[in-house]
């Protein structure tokens, strides 16, 4: 991360609701000016994590830093970088028109960029004079996104923003968000559990399982470092790396390996074995299965 403070850094972050630990000892750093996909099953702790980063929920223990400054409930201790959160229920006033919502955004935010909010609505053809209660679920999501973008946050947290969007709009919205990030000093963290439709959603990944981060990193690097090897039945893979998954049938074995150095797909494969890269869906599902099967054990092969 080249000496720059991370956009968001968590240190030993935990949150308990009564007897339920929603987050357990989470430590990670998210780079600035990226779209980060926060992925996890229902109940993995995504909303809890986003609310703590936004300062709307207190952690039970641990620290969150936003651009190097501690974030506490209610906001940064010294009025640091702006963080905006778009919660799952996307609060809009049903009787307000879309234009009214923008006026509301202007009056409730210290910084307001009307041009940016309008241009987002224009891109998705959302009518400005329609009452929010008469918009479709997808259009309401676009209005909430426009208001969030208008507040020019340094970190924009989006809790399941794609849930109400059709597949085409989902691709368009994520594409436009990537463009906003490229044009501006902004980091987007976007939560989703739609693993099957993740491709292109983010360029950095934070995968949560049962309140713990199980995989984090640049998506391209993660894909490059994983390989699926298939060959004759064997207890160990034919090369070095961490075994993320091993599957055996009577005569055949398949290993998903994580290799530290060169792109795994270009690795020399032992005779009788074939290597193929894995897809993003496979990467996520493999790590989630491994975490569920043996939460803190990963076998390293020298
Ligand atoms: N207010 C609350 N009181 C008690 N338990 C809660 C509360 N909020 C969340 N939890 C529990 O904490 C855990 C994490 O919940 P959270 O909503 O953060 O997960 P999530 O990954 O956002 O889930 P989803 O994808 O379903 O929105 C779950 O077990 C949930 O039941």
From TrEMBL:
<keyword id="KW-0067">ATP-binding</keyword>
<dbReference type="InterPro" id="IPR003593">
    <property type="entry name" value="AAA+_ATPase"/>
</dbReference>
<dbReference type="InterPro" id="IPR051782">
    <property type="entry name" value="ABC_Transporter_VariousFunc"/>
</dbReference>
<keyword id="KW-0547">Nucleotide-binding</keyword>
<dbReference type="GO" id="GO:0005524">
    <property type="term" value="F:ATP binding"/>
</dbReference>
<protein>
    <submittedName>
        <fullName>ABC-2 type transport system ATP-binding protein</fullName>
    </submittedName>
</protein>
<feature type="domain" description="ABC transporter">
    <location>
        <begin position="8"/>
        <end position="235"/>
    </location>
</feature>
<dbReference type="InterPro" id="IPR027417">
    <property type="entry name" value="P-loop_NTPase"/>
</dbReference>
<dbReference type="Pfam" id="PF00005">
    <property type="entry name" value="ABC_tran"/>
</dbReference>
<dbReference type="InterPro" id="IPR003439">
    <property type="entry name" value="ABC_transporter-like_ATP-bd"/>
</dbReference>
<keyword id="KW-0813">Transport</keyword>
């Amino acid at each position: 991360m080249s000496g720059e403070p991370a956009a968001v850094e968590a240190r030993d972050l935990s949150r308990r609701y009564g007897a339920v630990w929603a987050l357990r000892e989470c430590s990670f750093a998210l780079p600035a000016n990226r779209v980060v996909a926060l992925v996890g099953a229902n109940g993995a702790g995504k909303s809890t994590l986003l609310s703590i980063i936004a300062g709307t929920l207190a952690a039970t223990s641990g620290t969150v830093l936003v651009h190097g400054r501690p974030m506490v409930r209610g906001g940064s201790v010294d009025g640091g970088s702006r963080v905006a959160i778009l919660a799952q229920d996307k609060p809009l006033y049903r009787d307000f028109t879309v234009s009214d919502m923008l006026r509301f955004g202007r009056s409730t935010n210290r910084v307001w960029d009307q041009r940016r909010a309008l241009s987002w609505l224009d891109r998705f053809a959302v009518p400005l004079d329609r009452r929010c209660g008469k918009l479709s679920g997808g259009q309401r999501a676009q209005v909430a996104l426009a208001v969030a973008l208008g507040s020019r946050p340094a970190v924009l947290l989006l809790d399941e923003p794609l849930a109400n969007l059709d597949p085409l709009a989902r691709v368009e919205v994520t594409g436009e968000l990537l463009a906003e990030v490229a044009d501006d000093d902004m980091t987007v963290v976007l939560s989703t559990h739609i693993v099957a439709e993740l491709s292109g959603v983010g360029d950095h990944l934070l995968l949560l399982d049962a309140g713990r981060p199980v995989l984090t990193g640049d998506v391209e690097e993660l894909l490059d470092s994983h390989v699926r090897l298939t060959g004759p039945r064997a207890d160990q893979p034919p090369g070095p790396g961490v075994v993320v998954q091993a599957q055996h049938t009577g005569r055949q074995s398949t290993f998903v390996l994580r290799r530290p150095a060169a792109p795994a797909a270009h690795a020399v494969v032992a005779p009788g074995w074939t290597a193929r890269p894995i897809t993003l869906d496979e990467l996520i599902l493999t790590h989630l299965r491994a975490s569920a099967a043996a939460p803190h054990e990963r076998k390293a092969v020298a």
